Amino acid sequence: MSRPDVAVTGLGAVTPAGVGVEETWRRVRAGDSTARRDGELAGLAVDFSCRVPEFAVTDRARRRQLWRQDRFTRLALAAADEAVRDAELDPREWDAPRVGVVLGCGLGGARTWEAEFARMRREGPETVSPAVIPMLLPNMAAGEVALALAARGPSLSASTACASGASALAIARDWLLAGLCDVVLAGGTEAAVTPLVVAGFQQAGALSRRRDEPEAASRPFAGDSDGFVMAEAAAVLVLERAEHARARGVRPRALLAGCGASTDALHPTAPHPEGRVAELAVAAALADAGLEAGDVDHVNAHATSTPQGDAAEASMIGRVFGHGPSVTSAKGALGHSLGAAGAVEAVLTVLTIQRSLVPPTANVDAPDARFDIDLVTKTAREQRVAVAVSNSFGFGGHNVSVVLRAA
């Protein structure tokens, strides 16, 4: 008996390229880098980042709740609101116990941790906010989204470092196929561009140090890449069984056809140098989708702009997809938003399928000569994409791949 199709019916995103899916797509499609010098990071060896533009919360009830929410939660709420509208859903009318929420997040309320600890050291423990714990808990993005939208089905936070957003999609698909929910809001959020977090990645040697040209610092698959650029973002996809979407008269944007995961079990932070274990996640996702590697038209790569990580992924892509599907990485434009990245890139992959257009990898004229991949650079490429793979890899050896296909 065949399994039901899982449809993507709504998209929402807030990224350094803008507030909203269309603004994000416009700038990524143009290969427009969002990295800028960051005043909050002044004094660090790496003092630039990719931040989400400030946006107003217009709903009065929501404004009254901001005091208890860290920025990563506020970003998630904005993305969820857009996704629900895009899916033509009304939380006042849906069957609340059948609506789930699963959001990936790597670090939670990092800004709250730093600010409240500094206040305690400076002014004493009695000055710490009574909301500090719910503000910093990583699960509170999912909790606050469920609260704001009256989603009373299962909810949780997925934490697999930089694969968290993709893990959330896989979990949501499992819930739908198991019949636990009719609708799931799935995605990722992260707002951890703070001095402590940046200093930690800096000391680990993971960040680019191109202080003289931050706009060009994120260079996925380039021969002269030297590390990633920290970013913040949130993205949410509305998932539902295709028959459920059809019953309410909504056409899917795409289908989430398969998901696969693996764990390197090799090193806390370094990937397998040839991507051999990440390959298992891709193979599992394709098998789950009932597809072969040769069916794939496009790969949205994890490709953070670290020499080691990019080389491992390029090796894996060249080995698995010998027919040469197009490859791109949004991180040249958007930086690396950690736990949100997999969800942001899933949104972009859905749009690539819908619009038959592959965005370029910003800041790269051509891939490193060692990499046997068809990297889209300089300008967007018109291409019919029926099947696409989106990869996400995280510290701890977490590998997650999702297969999206045309509806």
Topology:
Blueprint (H helix, E strand, L loop, with lengths): L5 E10 L2 E2 L1 H9 L6 E2 L10 E2 L10 H4 L7 H16 L12 E6 L5 H14 L8 H5 L3 H10 L5 E4 L5 H14 L5 E8 L4 H9 L29 E9 H6 L6 E10 L12 H14 L8 E3 L6 H14 L5 E3 L2 H4 L6 H15 L1 E2 L15 E2 L5 E2 L4 E8 L3 E8 L2
Parallel strand pairs: 5-6, 5-7, 10-11, 10-15, 11-13
Antiparallel strand pairs: 1-2, 1-8, 1-9, 3-4, 7-8, 9-16, 12-14, 15-16
Helix pairs in contact: 3-6, 7-13
Organism: Streptomyces macrosporus
Pfam families: ketoacyl-synt, Ketoacyl-synt_C
Keywords: Acyltransferase, Transferase
Description of the structure:
- This protein is α/β, with parallel strands linked by helices and 407 residues long.
- It folds into two domains: 6-247, Thiolase/Chalcone synthase (Peroxisomal Thiolase, Chain A, domain 1), CATH 3.40.47.10; 258-405, 3-Layer(aba) Sandwich (Peroxisomal Thiolase, Chain A, domain 1).
- It has 13 helices and 16 strands.
- It has helices spanning 21-29, 60-63, 71-86, 110-123, 132-136, 140-149, 164-177, 195-203, 242-247, 276-289, 307-320, 331-334, 341-355, and strands at 6-15, 18-19, 36-37, 48-49, 99-104, 155-158, 183-190, 233-241, 254-263, 298-300, 326-328, 357-358, 374-375, 381-382, 387-394, 398-405.
- The strands form three sheets. Strands 1, 2, 5, 6, 7, 8, 9, 10, 11, 13, 15 and 16 form a twelve-stranded mixed β-sheet that branches. A two-stranded antiparallel ribbon has the order 3-4.
- Strand 1 (6-15) and strand 2 form a beta hairpin.
- Helix 3 packs across helix 6 (140-149) and helix 7 (164-177) packs across helix 13 (341-355).
- The model has no long low-confidence stretch (mean pLDDT 96).
- Residues 3-406 form the Ketosynthase family 3 (KS3) domain.
